Each structure stands twice: as C-alpha cells, then as structure tokens.
Amino acid sequence: MKDLLFTRFHQAINDRRAIKHFQPDFKIDSQLLSEILTMGFRVPTPGGCNPFRILKIEDNTELRTQLREIGFDQPQFTNASTLLFVSIDMNVLASAYSDQDVTDEILRNNAMILGGVFSQAVMLAAAARGLDSCPLIGFKFQPAGELLNKPDHQVITNLVTLGKRAKRPLARGSKIPLDELTVYL
Amino acid sequence: MAKHTIEVINKLLTHGLLAPSSFNLQHWRFHVVENPEKVSHLFSECDWKTTSVQAPPESAIIISGDYSAWENAPEYAKHLDPDFQALSLKKATAVYGTNHRTQLDEAARSCGFFLTNIIFSALEDNIGVSVASPNNLAAIISELNLNEATVPLCCVYLYSDATAELSMPLNPSHLDTMLANDQW
To answer: Which residues of chain A neighbour B163 with C-beta distances below 8 Å?
Structure first.
C-alpha cells in the first residue's frame, strides 16, 4: 500500500516548515511514528545498502535535559515528542563502493547527502500526517556522540525533531530565483 | 530528443526549492543537461558512480553545493527584520566561517533535503530517477566550469520508465540494526 505521502505530496512539501516550538504534552502515536520512520528507511541508497543508524529518544527526560544543555538550550530538545539522531554507518556506506575508488571526501559528502535524504523523507512523511518537524545541527556533535554512545564508525549528520507545533513558524524565507541557480546545458 | 521538457525539469527543481537549508542559505546549484549528446558525454567521460544504472539517462540534473553560501547570510534573511539579519550573519559566520568541512557538510546535507523533494516529485509524475555520485571531481568541475567554492555532489538521472513506488524494499530484519532507543 502506498504511503500517505504519495497522495498528499503537495500538501506535505508546502506544509513542512522548520518548527522551533513544540507542544510539550503532545506525543506521537507509536504506529504513526513507525510509518514515518519506514518512509525514511525506504529511500534509495547506494547499492541498496542500509547505512542509516537512527537513535530515537522519546521518554528519557534526563537524557533530553542533558542534550538541551549541549544544544544551546533550544526548547525542541525537551518539548518535541520525538528526537531522531540521524547517523550513517561509514563502513556500510564504504562497502557499497567496495569495487570502486572513492575518496574520503566524497564518502563523507555522500554520508551527509544520505542523512539529508533520510531526514527530509521523514519530515515529509510527518507533514503528510499533519505533524511538524525541524532539522537541527545546533548542538555540540562530539559531546552528543559521547552522551549517546555513538560508535566511532558512525557519523552523526543531524537531528530531526518531531511533534506538534506550539507556535506558527516565521514567514518562509526568500527563495533565490530558479534561473539564478540553474545553468541549462 | 530528450523526453523531459524544461518545464517538467523546472517543476522538479521548484519542488526541490521548498526543502530546508541552514539559515535559509540554499547551498544548491544546478546544471540541467537535456541535450542527449551532452548527457551521454557527461555519463561516459566524467565517471559518475552509480550502482544500479547501466544505460545513459535521457536527461540529468547535476546538483552542486556552494559552500561559500554562508557569506551571503543577510541576503537570504532579507525577508526578516534588520536585527535578525545581523544576528543571522553572526551565527552563520560562527558556525561556518572557520571550518571548511562544516561548510561542505551543510552544503551536502541541504542538497540531500533537496534531493528527496526531487525524487518524490519525480515519482509523482511517473519519471524514473536514479542518483549517481561523482568520482572524478576535477573532470566534472572542469566540464561544468564551476568556481572554486562549488563542489559537485550528485547527479540525478531522469528516465521515462518509472517505478510507481520507491524501489528500495525494506527488510524488517534490518530495522533492529538501523533503529536504536536512547543509546547506540
């Protein structure tokens, strides 16, 4: 069965905004969260490898408080329903190119791209279900990795917070016109 | 003749522009390659790495990241009040000003957000997509005449034959490996 995202795509890409303030008492239903995560795990990856290593935090208030301290006291850490730390297993990703020479720089770029692809799929799937989200890099990555017991071969790309908005977002940012970004060959 | 018109490709790109980017910096830059000869040339000469595609695509969108985008932070925050613009530049400079790898990371991550919108938009329009990774950066930079602050990140191949759903099957047994709670 097709995910809701495929029938509500236009609504989802237009409704998805980076929400900074979430309703602290709102909790995402576990079945709904499972559907949302499934969309993330189904995005195309090199060679169909499964490089995503996602850490989900919901009820651990002590951990959330510690993360907020290394996250510049941003309220999402404690108020969003779900925190998803997105990371890539670099060994798994490298194995997808095992028969080819790929530089460390390109491998790192690809990890960041994949983290972004996963995150946006999750955020769109959430938006298709009337939920809100925010991609976040505003935290200290190394202390966060230590706090979360991140293995060395994993690279955290970003955090995604999920929940229900408590405040309207700011006006959508001005967009660079497409013709200033594009060269047609 | 290319199967995808500029209007169709621009629709994909316009959907991509609705993706988020840090400080609204919009690091993404595009080269749309519709000329079949150029598509074929890029496919064969620039050594894009792909694990699934054997045939040259009919059209292609090369997505590059401008890792100097943070220098124009006030420009991208001009819809906000002047105080916020100044704060935006201060924060963007603190985050990106001194660390090249951080700049590259954000450019690549933003392009990943963008890429997802393109993939889903293409699926909705029954356009087949495949994503290739650059290998010979120098050849691509030379071919596209990119400036020194712009790095090619990926190439989206477009085909007429589409799969109606995402092609990536999800093996439930992989979920335990990919998803952890509270601690890795």
So the answer is: none
